[in-house]
């Protein structure tokens, strides 16, 4: 049997466009001599469709485009996944199409309801295996979460499957591919069957899909793999009960994985939503520098506008470094001093502030002036504002509502500060675009004289370690202290995370790159008196 796997980037809701892509891959697979083409989970409608799945018309329109795809399937078989409504029930389904007709349909058995997944909100679970014969080989179908559990694969084996093919919509996080390999290896060990795994590519709101579709043989070895993040089609051979080995590219570094995920996330959020480009406030600091580099790599310099908004507290080196960086990248650049606007705010508020000492209020006004200016430019040009705050700052509230949080997409929302430094150094290994002084100087919001981040926060290696343990690994305060952090630091960071949830909840959507991002998979109550054991 000749199996083609197509991994590609659908757009949620673009049923006509997605169907057109599937048809193109059908033609390519047939020209390659494939007997079967395997496409990813929900290739027809994009993933995740979320509450589109509550609209009856969505299923009807999917069925219309499925019929269109079926007409194009001649002299080859196709596995295509889509939402199915029948007899008052709704399923995550995959059909096998051959010579214009659906010859079998599988309904997903295991419905994920954790992390970013909530399929039990939308679907009923199937209960029956689906095995079809393709070129003399009995092929069983599982869908994504099915392969993470034992039931569906066991049913396919008992129904006579000799090989299992799996459409997937498995979103990226750091080193996710290793997790997939371990899961699929356990299914191979359980069933003794080789497995083909097809995954989506591209960005969808906060999620990024990395492709890396692969084959695993009966020994639990990965014997073929498609590229990371790129659309691709590959042709593979099943003979003598197993896959014939093909190419397996080396795993990229963590920094390479994450940097590519960020660029894909920005590219597709801007592109799929029809924005003509992006703009951002450039401060001379490392977060805005990395955000600018990502934006340019995602969109091209001609679609990015960087705006420097110096105040009386902005260091000369910040302006100089910003000018140097925009010169290296070739983007549009503007400088708009904010002191006149800031002074006008203070004048308007002078009566209300009389007799009160200066504090963070005046600092936040500066950030909000900058946010207002950026949003005005966004309104006038149609370009989307990219915010520049990182996960560490967002966790503990080191950001200003309606100030530096004002914007449409938070590129670094799930990127810890220590990783920001690693990514910046990584980007400069490709070509030098971030001036070295931006990377090496102490980070500062520059909202008052001689300010640094560490005036208000623990050292970032401490903050990140506690934040990652508490947020990403669900560890208790006692467990975190046992790792070597002081009780005072742990109490302080966890308290800040809790009291700033109201602020984090209002942050823009941003790219998820960890197993516990600050989006759909972090749903903590704002009003919350749970003490976490302290």
Task: Describe the protein's architecture and organization.
A hairpin with a 2-residue loop joins strand 14 (232-239) and strand 15 (242-243). The model has no long low-confidence stretch (mean pLDDT 94). The chain folds into 2 domains: 2-242, Nitrilase/N-carbamoyl-D-aminoacid amidohydrolase; 256-453, 3-Layer(aba) Sandwich (Rossmann fold). A 7-stranded mixed beta sheet has the order 5-4-3-2-1-14-15, with helices on one face. A 6-stranded mixed beta sheet has the order 6-7-8-9-12-13, with helices on one face. Strands 18-17-16-19-20 form a 5-stranded parallel beta sheet, with helices on both faces. The chain is elongated. The chain is of the alpha/beta class. It is built from 16 helices and 20 strands. It holds the Pfam family NAD_synthase. Residues 1-250 form the CN hydrolase domain.
Helical run tally: 16
Helix content: 25-40%
Number of strands: 20
End-to-end Cα distance, whole Å, is: 60 Å
Return the CATH architecture of the largest domain.
Answer: 4-Layer Sandwich
- Major sheet description: 7 strands, mixed
Could you tell me the CATH topology label of the largest domain.
Nitrilase/N-carbamoyl-D-aminoacid amidohydrolase
Shape: elongated
As a percent range, the share of strand residues is: 15-25%
GO biological process, one term: NAD+ biosynthetic process
GO molecular function: ATP binding; glutaminase activity; NAD+ synthase (glutamine-hydrolyzing) activity; NAD+ synthase activity
Organism: Chitinivorax tropicus
Pathway: Cofactor biosynthesis; NAD(+) biosynthesis; NAD(+) from deamido-NAD(+) (L-Gln route): step 1/1
């Amino acid at each position: 049997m000749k199996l083609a796997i197509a991994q590609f980037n659908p757009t949620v809701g673009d049923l006509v466009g997605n169907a057109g892509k599937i048809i193109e891959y059908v033609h390519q697979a047939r020209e390659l001599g494939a007997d079967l083409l395997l496409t990813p989970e929900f290739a027809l409608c994009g993933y995740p469709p979320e509450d589109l799945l509550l609209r009856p018309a969505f299923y009807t329109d999917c069925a219309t485009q499925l019929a269109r795809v079926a007409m194009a399937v001649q002299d080859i078989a196709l596995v295509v996944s889509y939402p199915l409504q029948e007899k008052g029930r709704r399923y995550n389904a995959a059909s096998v199409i051959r010579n214009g007709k659906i010859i079998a349909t599988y309904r997903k058995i295991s419905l994920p309801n954790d992390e970013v997944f909530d399929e039990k909100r939308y679907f009923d679970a199937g209960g029956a295996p689906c095995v079809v014969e393709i070129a003399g080989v009995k092929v069983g179908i599982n869908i994504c979460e099915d392969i993470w559990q034992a039931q569906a694969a066991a049913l396919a084996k008992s129904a006579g499957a000799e090989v299992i093919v799996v459409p997937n919509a498995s979103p990226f996080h750091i080193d996710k591919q290793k997790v997939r390999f371990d899961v699929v290896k356990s299914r191979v060990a359980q069933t003794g069957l080789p497995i083909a795994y097809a995954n989506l590519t591209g960005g969808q709101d906060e999620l990024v899909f990395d492709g890396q579709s692969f084959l695993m043989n009966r020994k639990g070895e990965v014997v073929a793999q498609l590229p990371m993040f790129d659309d691709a089609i590959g042709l593979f051979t099943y003979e003598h009960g197993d896959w014939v080995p093909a190419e397996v590219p080396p795993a990229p570094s963590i920094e390479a994985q994450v940097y590519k995920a960020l660029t894909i996330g920005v590219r597709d959020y801007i592109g799929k939503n029809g924005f003509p480009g992006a703009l951002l406030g450039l401060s001379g600091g490392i977060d805005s520098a990395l955000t600018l580099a990502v934006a340019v790599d995602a969109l091209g310099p001609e679609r990015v506008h960087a705006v420097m908004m110096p105040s009386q507290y902005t260091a000369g080196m910040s302006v100089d470094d910003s000018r140097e960086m925009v010169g290296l990248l070739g983007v549009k650049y503007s400088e708009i001093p904010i002191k006149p606007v800031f002074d006008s705010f203070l004048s308007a508020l002078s009566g209300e502030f009389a007799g009160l000492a200066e504090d963070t209020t005046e600092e936040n006004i500066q950030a909000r002036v900058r946010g207002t200016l950026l949003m005005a430019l966004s309104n006038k040009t149609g370009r989307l504002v990219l915010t520049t705050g990182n996960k560490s700052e967002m966790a503990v509230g080191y950001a200003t509502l309606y100030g530096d949080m004002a914007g449409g997409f938070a590129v670094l929302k799930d990127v810890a500060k220590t990783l920001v430094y690693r990514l910046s150094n990584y980007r400069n290994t490709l070509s030098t675009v971030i001036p070295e002084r931006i990377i090496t100087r102490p980070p500062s919001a520059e909202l008052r004289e001689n300010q640094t981040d560490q005036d208000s926060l623990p050292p970032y290696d401490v903050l990140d370690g506690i934040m990652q343990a508490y947020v990403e690994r669900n560890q208790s305060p006692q467990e975190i202290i046992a790792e070597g952090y002081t009780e005072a630091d742990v109490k302080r960071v966890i308290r800040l995370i809790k009291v700033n949830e109201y602020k984090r909840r209002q942050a823009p959507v941003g790219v998820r790159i960890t197993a516990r991002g600050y989006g759909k998979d972090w749903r903590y109550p704002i009003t919350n008196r749970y003490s976490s054991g302290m």
